[in-house]
Structure formats: C-alpha cells, structure tokens
Amino acid sequence: MSLGASDFPSTVRPLVAALTFHQLFEGIGLGGCIVQAKFPVKSMVTMTLFFSLTTPVGIAVGIAISSVYDENSPTALVVQGLLESAAAGILIYMALVDILAEDFMKAKVQSRGRLQLAMNVSLLLGAALMSMLAVWA
Questions:
Q1: Per-domain boundaries in the chain
Q2: Full-prediction pTM beyond 0.70?
Q3: Residues 107, 101 contacting (CB under 8 angstroms)
Q4: Which residues of the chain have pLDDT under 50?
Q5: H/E/C letters for each residue in 118-129?
Q6: Which uninterrupted H or E stretch holds 78?
Q7: 69-101: pLDDT as tens digits
Q8: Where is the chain membrane-spanning (predicted)?
Q9: What is the dihedral of CA 13, 16, 20, 22, to 10 degrees?
Q10: Which residues contact 104 (CB under 8 A, 6 or more apart)?
Q11: Do the Cβ atoms of 44 and 37 come closer than 8 Å?
C-alpha cells in the first residue's frame, strides 16, 4: 500500500527495489517449501496465485486511497502504528519461534559447542547490524 500511496519518485524507487528483491527471495523460499511439502497441484496453484496477487492488490489499494489519504491525520497515524506494530510482532514471532528455534534445536547444533557459539554470535551480530540500519532509516 505504501508504494501505491507514494507520490514522489524519491520514495517510489527504493520501494520498488525493496519489493522486487523481497518478493523474489520470498517467492523462491515459499516455492521450495511448497514443493517439499508435496501438496496437491490444486493447492499449489491456489497458494501461488494468492502469493502472486497480494503485492499488486496492496499497490492497487494504496493507489485507490492515495487521493483521500492524509498521512498526518491522527486517525492515519494510529492506523499506521497499529498495522506496523502487528506486522513487527508477527515478524518477531515467526523469526524466533518458527525459524530460529527450529535451527537452534537440531541435534547437530546441540552437540557441537563451537557451532552453537558461532550461531549465537552471528545472530547477535545480525541483530546489531539491523539496529544500526534503523539509525539511518
């Protein structure tokens, strides 16, 4: 929706680049998971269609509301804050519970102290670098 509601090229270009790479890598990852899960063809087609349509629909909604949207109104700020906090919460939950926990609980990791240490240091270093990025955003 942010892309559709943007009026200035200086905000559109970075959003297009970010969306393009995000969708590319997310699509590759999701496609791999769908293939490994061995879903029926009908289910795979349905999931692929939903994934393919979410971004264009979001952009269309952004374009539709851009003429009546005042980004500085109190209502818009509250709605934006609620949506961003919900998205951040979902992202944190998925990262910690679904992705990291699965990787860190594998027997190969549990039995090798150096690997465990390297994974934890990498995790903390990545979190620190992402926090530094927030300073520039």
A1: 1-69
A2: no
A3: no
A4: none
A5: HHHHHHHHHHHH
A6: helix 74-93
A7: 787 889 888 888 898 899 899 988 988 888 888
A8: 15-35, 47-69, 75-96, 117-136
A9: 100
A10: 116, 119
A11: no
